[in-house]
Amino acid sequence: MARRATTTRRADEGASASDGSFARSAMRLVALLEALAKSEEGVSLAELSGSIGAPKSSLLGILRSMVASGYMEHGHGLYRLGPKSFRLAADILAIRRFPNLVRPILQDLATKSGETVFLVVLDYLAQRCSYADVIDSPNPVRYTVPTGTSRPLYASAGGLMLLAYQEPSFIDAYIRATRLEPLTAHTVTDPVQLREKLATIHREGFSISRGETIPGAAGIAAPIFNADGSVSAGLLVGTPLHRFEERLPELRRLLQEATNRVAGIPQSIAEGNATTHIQS
């Protein structure tokens, strides 16, 4: 028993160290982006190291990864924000308008379904599913969550849907870095099973959760595709579990109709941003 306890303790300590390292790297990445956002000319590795208070060797790996992915550029010894960073900034500004544009479709879905409906968005920095807008069901017994609430990507219907449509590299990094803790007895915490579930969601086009996050609650979520085929938002219908099974075919149909209507909005936002950039 003593040997088993020691092994468990070492495993926990190793997991804690891994979590700490990941958090430190994430904070350094944010600090790098903030530093580069303040400079048009670019910043040297030595200057970044001094301003952030981190060793150059620790920052170099992050910088090289960001340059390779297009979020930063490097030339003449200086680092600058890359084209993908500017596109991300435009997307962030656009998404602030997005809930208002989607609201009428969300209201229509709520009326037709009689259940609580959500606009869910991917919080890339926190790597969680955030409920950007919520319309509650009029039913006395209903599933409801306040606007602004967030859920783990690996457990909730909305989170699983958003995770399933990310790049394989994002999914791999997320599963490696995330401690898959059970929120209920039905939460999938095995990485292999989680990958299988994500593949099924991507293939079928929707995500279903039955008591994985909150006992007695169920949900079905579908993606909203951006113009480039990526997914950063979706619609979710949440219900008490006892009503979910008998209504599932109907809810799936209504959800699909709603996401088809919303699909043109990201394209409209992108075209509006392009027009703004051209005029400016």
Overview of this structure, please?
This protein is of the alpha+beta class and 280 residues long. The protein has two domains: 2-81, Winged helix-like DNA-binding domain superfamily/Winged helix DNA-binding domain (Arc Repressor Mutant, subunit A), CATH 1.10.10.10; 88-269, GAF domain (Beta-Lactamase, 2-Layer Sandwich). Helix content is 57%, strand content 18%. It has nine helices and eight strands. Mean pLDDT is 84; it is low at 1-15 and 267-280.
Chart the SSEs and their pairings.
Blueprint: H1 2-37, H2 45-52, H3 56-69, E1 72-75, E2 78-81, H4 83-113, E3 116-123, E4 128-135, E5 150-152, H5 157-164, H6 168-177, H7 191-204, E6 207-210, E7 217-225, E8 231-240, H8 241-262, H9 264-279
Mean pLDDT: 84
Low-confidence stretches: 1-15, 267-280
Number of strands: 8
Radius of gyration: 21 Å
The CATH homology group name of the largest domain: GAF domain
Helix content range of the residues, please? 55-70%
What is the CATH architecture descriptor of the largest domain?
Answer: 2-Layer Sandwich
Which CATH class of the largest domain applies here?
Alpha Beta
Shape: elongated
Structural class: alpha+beta
Biggest sheet, spatial arrangement of strands: 5-4-3-8-7-6
Largest sheet: 6 strands, antiparallel
Beta-strand content estimate = 15-25%
User: Could you spell the SSE succession in H and E letters?
Assistant: HHHEEHEEEHHHEEEHH
Number of helices: 9
